[in-house]
Structure prediction request, 394 residues.
Amino acid sequence: MTDDIDSQPAAPRSDGAASAPVPPPVPTPVAGRTRGTRPDDPVAKIRGAKKVRRRKLETAGLWLIAALAVLVVLGTVYAFVFSGPRTASGEPSTFVVRSGDGSSAVSQRLAKEGLVRSRLVYRVIEAVSAGGELKPGEYEIPSGASPGRIVDILTTGRGIQRKITIPEGWTVAMAMERIEKNPLLEGPMPTTVPAEGTMMPDTYPFQRGDTRAAMVERMVATSENFLAEAWLRRAADLPLRTPQEALILASIVEKETAIASERPQVASVFVNRLRRGMKLQSDPTIIYGITKGVPLRRRIRASEIRMPHPWNTYVINALPPTPIANPGRESIEAVLNPPDTPYIFFVADGTGGHVFAETYAEHNRNVQRWREFRARQEAKDADLAGGRDSGGGQ
Prediction:
């Protein structure tokens, strides 16, 4: 007997019926083979390898597409959120937030002027930022600034600093005119004009959008505060009873000389005269009564020296009723702390300064020298004018 079961005949059934044949076993499929191929078929192996490579390529392609999509999304987010448009020159741009501007108007103008790529992104960043409200002013926006940085710039109020200068010796009317004509200030002028001499001459920084009324108020407050502090530091035994009298005398000193180093000496002359009960005899007080501080642009006439008006210190034996200009800090300090000098006279020396004298005789000699200098200067100017009219000679 053998072990081959397949070679044995089928046992007869007890019911006498013929037995059915047993089906052959199904072969187990081999990996890498196709139906009807042999396990070592080289064609089948090649086809299988190609399929595997194709699947790997498809998977790699999908990952590459996904990576590119992520990069595009990140680039878009960066472009819209973390950076802004750049100017062609790389220079910063100027942007103005007007009084009353809201987020909608500002974001629309930012987009229109090419400072942000998307109004919506700017509005979202502004809404979630920790910054405060928009501050009116003129701002410098760096090239390529992100929406977040722009929000920070516009809400901190650190705008571009502009300047307005009121020179020493200007009248209130002159100062008010300069403020009114400044195109970067806004709003109407105040209805009440400050008193003469009460607007401190200085250079004042401001931002576009500041109001004219606030600027006037600021100049007046600066003058009041400085005068009050200087009054507390005044010398003893001054012939000045009030801060207002000090302001009046300081305005006269201011108009008498533009040389800072001379102001203490000029102040000492007027203080000495007040102590002696003498008239101040200041030419600028005559001019103020005629023009209210506008330059006369000619010599004072003899009749004007004798003209009676409240500011003419050749007529009145006292201080004028008001200042004749806005005095600067140095003139105020000079009259409140004048040097101890014997001088009671001074006259121009022909070089822009003055020469001082203790006696009337000395003063007359100084006046004569001044007149001679002026005569020579006028003759020289006449010769030059004649040369121009004649075509310059041969």
In short: DSSP finds twelve helices and six strands in the chain. The CA atoms of residues 20 and 108 lie 92 Å apart.
